[in-house]
Amino acid sequence: MVTVKRFLFVLAALFIISGILGGCGYSVYRHASLPFQEISIGLIENRTVEPKLQDKLERALTEEFLKQGISINPSAQYKITGIVRAFDMVAIASKDNIGVEYRVTFDADFTLVEGPKKIRDIKNIRSPFIVSFRSYKGSPNLSNLLAAEEVAEDQVANNVAMEIVGALIYIKK
Fold it and tell me: Number of structural domains, the chain?
């Protein structure tokens, strides 16, 4: 009797969870239902004065595609290219007129192409999360500040990659 009640409880819980997830627009996608199985990452152009953003974004895109089960192949039918258009590092808190907390953002545009034809332009992608960092204990130590900035830039690149890969996976054909 106890096992029947437990079974009914588990079954009811599964129906409730599937109803909640199904009603919120979430659905489970199988690898075969993705719009593409492999992609090539083309030129990521950096039009800012901040060095190495294109490298960070290319690395982040590679990691995110691989996490989603999409392989990276230079001869793939689909290719993504991008332009990093803007970079901002804004002090959001200061102590004794020295910035102690900063917010890092950058904006990028992407294009997905299939062979010779452009499929989709995705403009103004930026991190959906606020990425900030603090200088250590308000210390104006430049090496600590640069190290923290580097970590924050990597985090922003990862967030942008997550946004663009999500947008590409769920494209409507």
Answer: 1
